[in-house]
Design goal:
It is built from six helices and twelve strands. By secondary structure, it is of the alpha+beta class. It folds into two domains: 86 residues, Pdz3 Domain (Roll); 89 residues, PDZ domain (Pdz3 Domain, Roll). It is globular, with a radius of gyration of 17 Å.
Length: 200
């Protein structure tokens, strides 16, 4: 399971009341987190009754508990809090190589040039063959994408929790985003993370 800090922009995109906690950006299949029912996009706000301020505090709580122990994790999902029982596993340390080569793609919204990710390209990038999304080939300086921290080689999988697999889907998702910052799920070096992009 991979997590990241909840920033003010992420809290705004997810309509959270508090800018605190650790948002789950990835859950491995058949992992303790997956078996416990945790999902990408869940925000962990406490661990065994102790508040979780950010990703580091969560990692410290998990380390203190130790592998194999049971823990109660309080999460926020769809605006509601719930408790989840998790049996902790060994720490994960996965790396993946990246290949920035990709087919020519069109200039899309946000100031990025992207190309659809197919099974062959996913395999070249060291990603699971079933991974889908848009490979970022170029990021325009001073664009919304650059301000959001998007990099060449990133794979944009979702915008506002909706899959985007074509340039048209990307443009449509940006248009439908409204006034809130866009919530982007990207894969970078084999890890999923959330980024936010301003709509202005």
């Amino acid at each position: 399971m991979s997590v990241q800090d909840v920033t003010s922009d992420l809290a705004d995109s997810l309509n959270l009341k508090n800018v605190s906690g650790a948002i789950i950006s990835g859950v491995a299949n058949d992992s303790p987190a997956s078996r416990a029912g945790l999902k990408r996009g869940d925000v962990i706000v406490s661990f065994n009754g102790e508040a979780v301020a950010n990703g580091n505090s969560l990692k410290n709580r998990v380390a203190d508990a130790g592998p194999g122990s049971a823990a109660t994790v309080t999460i926020t999902r769809d605006g509601k809090q719930q408790d989840v029982r998790v049996t902790l596993g060994e720490a994960e340390n996965k790396t993946a190589r990246r290949d920035d080569s990709a087919a020519e793609g069109g200039q899309a919204a946000l100031g990025v040039a992207v190309a659809p990710l197919n099974a062959e390209l996913a395999q070249q990038m060291g990603l699971p063959r079933q991974t889908r999304g848009l490979v970022v080939q170029e990021v325009q300086p001073d664009s919304r994408a650059a301000a959001a921290g998007i990099q060449e080689g990133d794979v944009i999988q979702e915008i506002n929790q909706q899959p985007v697999q074509t340039v048209d889907a990307l443009r449509t998702a940006v248009k439908q985003g409204g006034s809130r910052p866009l919530l982007l799920l990207v894969t970078r070096d084999g890890h999923d993370l959330f980024l936010t992009a301003s709509q202005s």
